[in-house]
Every structure is written in structure tokens, then in C-alpha cells.
Amino acid sequence: MTATSTRLPPGFEALEAFVPYWSLDTNDQRRAARSTAAMDDIQRFYDAIVGCAEQAIVHCEQFALGQMPPASERLFKLLLAMNHAAIAVEMHGQPRAHDSTWPSAVRISQGPWPHGGRI
Would you list the domain boundaries of the chain? Predict the structure, then answer.
């Protein structure tokens, strides 16, 4: 990714290092990122974003879904990825649930963005 494609809105610069790995288009991509990341990396992302999540939500709420400026859309995708990281940190204590199969056969192939793609 170029520097422009990792930029976030002003005030969220501390999260820019996480954009290439965590700011993904679909639920399946975000789940795969969590499922294949090292737990230390998940924890680092989780710790960084939880502290500014409320501010990020307030920022993103000023735009209609699917009509955000690119920097705000990247921030929104990080918020969606935060939920995946929270599952690993708060529930499983590891990237995937114990005894879960990976890769999973479950795929979201249709549906509205940001879950199954832009339709």
C-alpha cells in the first residue's frame, strides 16, 4: 500500500500502521486476518484501537455508509476489524476458537458491503 492508501483522518495517525493488515473489505477477509495473525499482533491492534474507538465511531457516523471519504472508510474498516480482534482477545485468548477448523468452509459470498462485498 502507498502512504496515501494507509492514511486515516486527522487524529488517528497512531492507527496507520495497522491499515495494511486490518483495513479489509469483507467479513471473510477480516476473519481470515484474525485467524492467521499472531496473538501478539492481534493484542497490539486491539490495544491501539480500543482506546480511540469511541472517537472513531463519532467520526464515521457523520458519513452515510458507502459514501465515506477514503480515509474515513479505512478507519471504518479498522473498527469492523476491531470486533474480530475482540473475539480473539476477550473470548478465545487465541486467534481462533479452540478446536475450530481452519480454514473454515463458511463463506459470505453475497450481501451488502461491508460484509460480503459491494452489491
Answer: 3-92
